[in-house]
Amino acid sequence: MVDLRVMTTTGEEMILEEATVQLFKTSLRGALLCPGNDGYDAARQVFNAMVDKRPALIVRCAGAADVVTAVHFAREHNVCVAVRGGGHNPAGHSLCEGGLVIDLSPMKGLRVDPLRKAVHAQGGVTWGDFDRETAAFGLATPGGMVSTTGIAGLTLGGGEGWLSRKYGLSCDNLLSVDVVTADGTFLTVNGSENEELFWGIRGGGGNFGIITAFEYRLHPVTQVLGGWLIYPLAQAKPLLTFLRDYLATTPEELTVLIVFMTAPADPMLPPAVHNTVVVVPAVCYTGSLPEGEKVLQPLRTFGTPAVDVIRPRKRNKSS
Length: 319
Known about the structure:
The chain has 9 helices and 18 strands. It is an alpha+beta fold.
């Protein structure tokens, strides 16, 4: 390890001496990675491969204590900070050039309380992790539609998912969080402790502190009727006109997401739609299966879908 050139919060560069960095490293339970260290390049990769930032320091946090230590270090040395949960933000906000990344992705602890219908999840958990654990108990909460999305970023931004019409946003189902504030204070935040901060984090983004753990309310969900239809682009206008009126009459158990995309040359798809722009209504019905079949029948018989893969699906992983 050698002296490090780092970026300050004011956009200026400064040098951190090797002894200072080494002392910081020994104060952590998790790993401290610098450019050239094994695992550094893997740790700075995020979902959007176009983001190519090179932090000076990456703290791979093993727990909340590492988060507190990293915040105090950044404050003492005026180092620019980014916080990483799942690393799924398309803009790459979970990295910073030349600064300190407080990386929560190793913090994967999950504990389900089936009697209370609640789950405690650490800040590095993804929705794929979350759904695998809660599905074992026949429980769920509104969460990400992509399994690799982190629970932290999605929840702090509100969080819309397949269950949202029935059970609200992810942030509506928060019971409590653990927060490390900008001055390094660790707080428990919920409806009776630090209530104003609890109000702010539910949709206010990652502006109020680093959330090291979340507690969510869970709901019984064991099976859904879900999948998607694929329509040629030429049917987009009549399809969307139909959906405008259809969705105004459907129960809250049904969520529909509309996607415009270029269909891949997949052998499971009809050759006529390969590499063409298509319209895809993706659906999820969380009520009884017989009732779901009735609710979805008008959609499934509208127009001429090229593909219909709506079917009963057991909850064993995130979609």
